[in-house]
Write a structure and sequence with these properties.
Structural class: mainly alpha
Strand content: under 5%
Number of strands: 0
Family: Belongs to the exbB/tolQ family.
Subcellular location: Cell membrane; Membrane
Protein name: MotA/TolQ/ExbB proton channel family protein
Main location: membrane
Helix content: over 70%
Order of helices and strands: HHHHHHHH
Keywords: Cell membrane, Membrane, Protein transport, Transmembrane, Transmembrane helix, Transport
Radius of gyration: 32 Å
Largest sheet: none
Distance between the termini: 109 Å
Number of helices: 8
Length: 229
């Protein structure tokens, strides 16, 4: 049986299944290409920026700027580019950029989630419609005779849509869980590198903005006397 015959045997539910599988496949290819460009450089960039930040803050800023084509580079540079901000502002810059980058990494999740949920249901719908079509004209008196051979063939063909729906859903689920694992790893990397960078900044900021010692009061200075009433 050719692919076209297999598709025709699946019934009308194969049309939305084909459209859904095309969307899922496009999303999987796009996300796989996206992650292939990220996973090999993220930890290296974070390590270089943090190592430079321990010695020279300007050098760390330049490394992060040159790595702004990567999510971790944009994440670290969003705080490093600020001019002597308060530690709270520094932290907010990291948090806002992390949320934005993680949202970009989750792009396509809704398509895969919809495919996982809808593909089995569409396959089941196609099977039910095929069974209705196959059993519509059968009579009890025909059971056990040669006239039911076509019904048996029709039932087997009706199950094609269910098998197709399950294959599409299982494939989408496998890649969905894989991409979720990548996102979880990136969130952990953002949290670790962001916390370490913030700690380094807070140490340097406290040293630069340490309160100056109060100058010695003049020798002839005397505090005002408050008379008791």
């Amino acid at each position: 049986m050719s692919i076209s015959e297999l598709f025709a045997s699946g019934g009308p539910a194969m049309v939305p299944l084909l459209f859904l599988s095309f969307l899922a496949l496009s999303t999987i290819i796009e996300r796989a290409w996206f992650w292939s460009k990220i996973l090999t450089h993220e930890r290296e960039i974070a390590g270089r920026v943090l190592e430079a930040a321990r010695r020279d803050w300007d050098a760390a800023t330049e490394i992060a700027r040159k790595s702004s084509n990567q999510p971790i580079g944009r994440f670290l540079y969003s705080a490093l580019e600020l001019q002597d901000p308060d530690p709270e502002v520094f932290q907010l810059a990291l948090q806002a950029t992390a949320d934005e980058e993680l949202a970009t990494m989750r792009r396509g999740d809704k398509v895969l989630e919809a495919t996982i949920a809808l593909a089995p249901l569409l396959g089941l719908l196609g099977t039910v419609l095929g069974l209705i079509r196959s059993l519509r004209d059968i009579r009890i008196s025909d059971i056990g005779t040669d006239s039911t051979a076509g019904v048996t063939l029709g039932i087997s063909e009706a199950l094609i849509s269910t098998a197709t729906g399950l294959i599409v859903a299982i494939t989408a689920l496998a890649f969905y869980r894989l991409f979720q694992g990548f996102i979880s790893g990136q969130a952990k990397l953002f949290r670790q590198s962001g916390n370490e960078l913030e700690l380094l900044y807070r140490k340097g900021w406290s040293q630069r903005h340490r309160a100056k010692p109060i100058q010695d009061a003049p020798a002839n200075f005397a505090p005002p006397i408050v008379e008791e009433k």
